[in-house]
Amino acid sequence: MKPQLDLIRRTVLALFLREMKTRFGKYRLGYLWCLLEPLAHISILLLLFGYIMHRSIPSIPFPLFLLCGVLPFLMFNQIVSRSLNALDANQGLLSYRPVQAIDLILARTLLEGVIGTAVFLLLLLCLALAGQNIALDQLPALCGYWLLLLLFSFSLGLLFMLLGHAYPESEKLIPLLIKPLYFLSGVMFPLALVPAPYQAYLLWNPLAHALELIRHALVTSYPADHVHGSYLLLWTLGLLFFSLLFYKGRANALRRS
């Protein structure tokens, strides 16, 4: 068992290093894009909605509110969207016996998780130095919600990879389904401001629970009565179980391809 785990670890690490070089090696600014992309995203939203939203959500500074929405969503989006073509982009590697299809998603999730976490902590530190009041007394809860979001993204990415392999047409359809999540997950607005009849529909989305819980973990005065960690946990475990079951069922087809 131990040699097998060691082989998986070394395989995923090698794929992680390859993904890191492929992702940023072609850009002149290299790894600086990790910081520039979310920073530009947050800056534009601050310019467009800063004054209005600052008055609408006094319980949390709007820059911190955006940081806790944009960064986790970008991390989620990168994992699931880049999973669709993971098999096509790495067909040559799958000819090597140690490399399994699930290793590709593990490596991509690990890369995006490391990047997302590092950038989130760096921008969080910048906000703290700028005078924003950030509570760290719920740090274990924050780490738990962040890891649940990563596991949820991995599970959905694995499912999308398998769907893309089984049904090539889904590679056109799935990105169209992901894009509305940006507006349905509370990235730019708090769900507490949404009228109750419509809020109930948005709360079917587990991603919305993850973003709201991350905000509440950093600012305890931020309202979070409408979201539940147990709902996010059940969705994550259920999706992980279904994805692994689907992966096992597609194992022979993946080997033949």
TrEMBL record:
GO MF: ABC-type transporter activity
GO BP of this protein: lipopolysaccharide transport
Keywords annotated in UniProt: Cell inner membrane, Cell membrane, Membrane, Transmembrane, Transmembrane helix, Transport
Primary location class: membrane
Species the sequence originates in: Aquitalea palustris
Protein's cellular compartments: Cell inner membrane
Family of the protein in this entry: Belongs to the ABC-2 integral membrane protein family.
Record-annotated membrane-spanning stretches: 30-54, 60-80, 101-130, 145-164, 176-198, 228-247
Protein known as: Transport permease protein
Membrane association type: Multi-pass membrane protein
